[in-house]
Amino acid sequence: MSNALDLALKAIKANLLLESQPFETQWDLFCEQYEPLFKHVTSSKPQNAPTHHLLGILTKAHIDSQSMLQTHLKSVKKMEQVFEENLGKEKAGLFENQSLAGLVFVTHLWLYLQGYLKMDFSLANDHAQQTSVTVHSLTEQDTNALRTEFMASFYLGNQHSPIIQSANPIIKWLRSLFGG
């Protein structure tokens, strides 16, 4: 798939996430779903960097995914329970919850971009923790392990960022005062 959104994500090397996780399906679905919005915002505000448009779209996608899953949490749990009761735990486990898979993918992608843009670590960590709690409520996976996996995407983005972080603003101010 090669559309503007796909190319913008590949330009920041977000496709590196595909090497560590089986996200190809979610990648394609995400690009297909958000391509029209990406084209609209890039044509409406061409002066803004594509990464800023990506940040807006990924923030929206994350909020939408998280709230949709939270809204339907009870019914999803009930459905999984029915599958387990009727098919057995092993066969029921073969069904993939697409809403959950989408949330996990969008979270990895969003945190990657936050790292790439050298955004605040603690905010990214809070978002990773929040999503981990949601995922845990459906899968019973360890929240700390999930948060660590999500933050690995933040660090990967940070590692591939061309942005050189400047010194702390307070240090800059002190240096300006003392001529340094």
Description:
- This protein is mainly alpha-helical and 180 residues long.
- It has one domain.
- The protein is 77% helix and 0% strand.
- It is built from ten helices and no strands.
- The protein has helices at 4-11, 17-20, 24-44, 50-71, 73-87, 89-92, 98-116, 121-139, 143-159, 169-177.
- Helix 4 runs antiparallel to helix 7 (98-116) and helix 8 (121-139) packs antiparallel against helix 9 (143-159).
- It starts with a helix and ends with a helix.
- The mean pLDDT is 87.
Residues in β-strands, percent: under 5%
**How many distinct helices?**
10
How big is the Rg?
Answer: 19 Å
Mean pLDDT across every amino acid position: 87
Approximate shape: globular
Low-confidence stretches: none
Structural class: mainly alpha
From the N-terminal CA to the C-terminal CA, the straight-line distance is 51 Å
Strands, total number = 0
Task: Tell me the helix content.
Answer: over 70%
Number of domains: 1
Main sheet record: none
How would you spell out the order of helices and strands? HHHHHHHHHH
Entry summary:
The chain contains ten helices and no strands.
Outline the secondary-structure elements:
Layout (H helix, E strand, L loop, with lengths): L3 H8 L5 H4 L3 H21 L5 H22 L1 H15 L1 H4 L5 H19 L4 H19 L3 H17 L9 H9 L3
Helix pairs in contact: 3-4, 4-7, 7-8, 7-9, 8-9
Which key features would you list for this structure?
180 residues; mainly alpha; 77% helix; 0% strand; globular
